[in-house]
Each structure stands twice: as structure tokens, then as C-alpha cells.
Amino acid sequence: MSETVRLMERAGKPAAQRRQGLVPVVIYGAGSESLSFSADAKTIDSILGKNPRAVLKAELPASGTKNVIINEVQRQPLTKKLLHIDFHVIDMKAKLDTKVALHFTGTPAGVKGGGVQTVELHELDIRTLPDKLESVIEVDVSALEIGDHLLVSDLPKHEGWEVLTDPETLVVKIAPPAVAEEPAAEEEGAAEPAAAEETAEGTEA
Predict the structure, then answer these.
(1) How far is CA 49 from CA 73, 76, 135, in A?
(2) What is the pLDDT of residue 6?
(3) Which of 59, 146, 173, 201 has fewest C-beta within 10 Å?
(4) Rounded to an integer, what distance in angstroms lies between the CA atom of residue 128 and that of residue 131?
(5) Is 60 exceeded by the pLDDT of residue 139?
């Protein structure tokens, strides 16, 4: 079931709205003109925490509801306080291009054996209908041994998804354990006695 976000008419400057616990919102798309509103910041933060790509029902003042997705989020760099939200109106019968986060589960067998897991891809580009959207795709990596890797083509298939990311893109790999190199200083130190011995031998001769 889609979560409903109640939008309010803007009143006052953005800074004043934020002090009141509101966040400025712009809503546009699907043939609709761009409109400006405000929304409760705590409600938006809660939605972002649960599913930032969820399809929402935006309740507009005196003009019904529209199906939307969150298209852009602006936050204050240090405090992470919400500064602005863009809602994009969508047609529930039209496919849209979006991203889905990759969530890796399990501890790779290779990591248990001393290997190092390196994640090369964190999000997948997909095309799908709005009601097929998901916030994450679970990727089980527990069977991966040292030297193994996963490509986009190896990921679980989802009905109704067209994957736009190149299927040969590397997702995750298990590298061999790093081998520590001997410090160069030790090698130089070991060479000095040998040089001294050669000098001594030359003097005796």
C-alpha cells in the first residue's frame, strides 16, 4: 500500500518553514506544471529511512492526490537536516528508469579463509513499472571463494525488471590475502654488513 504524504501551501520563506519542522517541496512531471508546497520533515525522513524509492501518494491541497516518487533530496552537509525535496509525478502504467541498491548478505567462504571482499557496484540501473519497484536487491555472497567474483549477469532475476547496467559489470570479488612486503630498510641493513666484509677481505689481501 502506498504511503500518503500531505502537502501544504507554502507560507513564508524556506528558512522559516524549516524552523517550523517543514521542508519545501516541488512537485512536477507527467504533464503537470511545477508546483511548490511544504511537507512535514519528520514524515519525509521516515519515508527515506524505510524506502527512498517508494511510490507515494501526494495529497495536494484541495486538488486530490497524485502518484509520485522522490526524485531529489537536498540536505544540509553537516547536520543532514532536510532542505528541499523534489517529487516526480508518475504514470502507474508507464515504465520508469530508476536505481535499486545492492545489499550483500552472508560472509563469503573466501573471507573466512583470509581473503578480502571488494564491492565494485552498489546500485543497479533498472527499468520497470512503478508497482514493481523495490528499494534493495539481496545478493548472497556466502558461497564465494578466494578468486571468485560476481557480475551483473550473475545477480538474481526479478520479474518485470529490465536491467540497464552492462551485464559484464563487476559487482563484487574476493581477492587473495594481502602479502606484506619486507621493508626496504631491512634489505639495506642486511646489505651493509656484506659490503663491510668484502672491504675487510680486500684490506687483508
Answers:
(1) 12, 17, 11
(2) 93
(3) 201
(4) 8
(5) yes
What cell was used for 7? 502537502
Q: Using the 8-state DSSP alphabet, how is residue 59 labeled? A: E
Q: Of 98, 97, 101, whose CA–CA distance to 119 is shortest?
A: 101
Alpha-carbon gap, residue 63 to 8, rounded angstroms: 11
List the one residue out of 7, 9, 13 whose CA is nearest residue 44.
7
Q: What is the pTM for the complete model shown?
A: 0.72
Joined together, the cell numbers standing for residue 95 give 515504465
For residue 16 the three cell numbers come to 522559516
Quickly list DSSP for 64-119.
Answer: -EEEEEEEEEEE-TTT--EEEEEEEE--TTS-EEEEEEEEEES--HHHHTT-EEEE
Q: Which three cell numbers stand for residue 184?
A: 626496504
Q: Are strands 170-175 and 116-119 parallel, antiparallel or unpaired?
A: antiparallel
198 pLDDT band (50/70/90 cuts)?
Answer: low
DSSP bridge partners of 9: 37
* Res. 57: pLDDT tops 70: yes
CA–CA distance, 146 with 199 (Å, rounded to integer): 49
